[in-house]
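Hi P.,

Sorry for the delay on this. The queue was packed all week, but I finally got your sequence through. Input first:
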Amino acid sequence: MSREAISLALEALDKHDYEMADHILSQALQQTDQVAQDLAIAVAGVVRGTHEITGVTIKPKREWRGLTDQDVHECFNLAEWTHNLDFRRDPEAWCKAFASEVEQTLKARNT
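Then the structure:
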């Protein structure tokens, strides 16, 4: 991909003209070697919102995975039994334990 194409795409992005940036990058893709083409595809993915930048890595965005009813039930049980808490005796501690279990489960599902 030429420096001129990159410069034009960056100018379009500065103006929030994402369609033009996408068009410029798409046109430039036809004139590049494979390595540059892979990079341009990733950048176009960022422009389209289908990829995200993490540090120096561009990777496809992952779809958020929420909790199933079964997951919520397991988090409830872990708060009750593993932490040996009863909501009626100590609601604040129980809620913190439940929230912690929910957080850990969501992290496990989305990493």
